[in-house]
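Reopening: Histidine phosphatase family protein still failing for me.
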Amino acid sequence: MVNIYLVRHGKTMFNTIGRAQGWSDTPLTEAGELGIIELGLGFKEKEIKFDRAYSSDSGRTIQTMGFILSHSDNEGIPYRFDKRIREWCFGSFDGGYDGELFDGVLPRIFAENGSFNGTFPDDEKIANAIFAVDTAGWAEPWEKLSGRIIEGFTDIAREAETTGSKNIVIVSHGMTIGSFVKLINPELPRPRGLDNGSVTHLTFEDGKFTVGLVGDMSYRTLGNQKLNALQN
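Support: Ran it again with your exact input. Result attached.
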């Protein structure tokens, strides 16, 4: 069985000012770096040794992984990027303010086509709505988006299982992680608002994922306590 520690990347410039990041990229802020240092120290305190590491090919996840591995004493393990576990692409809305897309454009689309009933639509409707209004032609319809998310994480887990890995760490993105959890366990509520540096626990065995604790902040809390103790 493979234990999977699925991490949302550290807080970035765009996260801080409320912009939709998608496939565009900004670096971690100073506070974002500190949060991931705390995460790494939390893993270290729990004596978690990773056999392999994976992330998307976005700069913010690569930067996050560097801090995790160095501060958890896991440097030098096999590590590779996989573009299939990137964030959703928002096409021409990449880099725009979250409010413009999620509180403005999308609700108008859903109201116009009669699909808004007071609760926010599911991922499929959101993805297809973004695809429909994207003037750049970069956004992905739900079939393509969900397919590459499932394929990417499944291939990673299978590789880890084949190589005999017990513990792996993956750094991905908030909406991608939320979609993935819902895809592998439709009975669970769709995770929203996952904190930067949070950990979603999964296991993989015989081709099947099992979802554990979602959005766990205990490692960061433990690392924060350790960091404060070192500074005092």
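The chain has eight helices and six strands. If you still see a failure, please send the error message rather than a screenshot.
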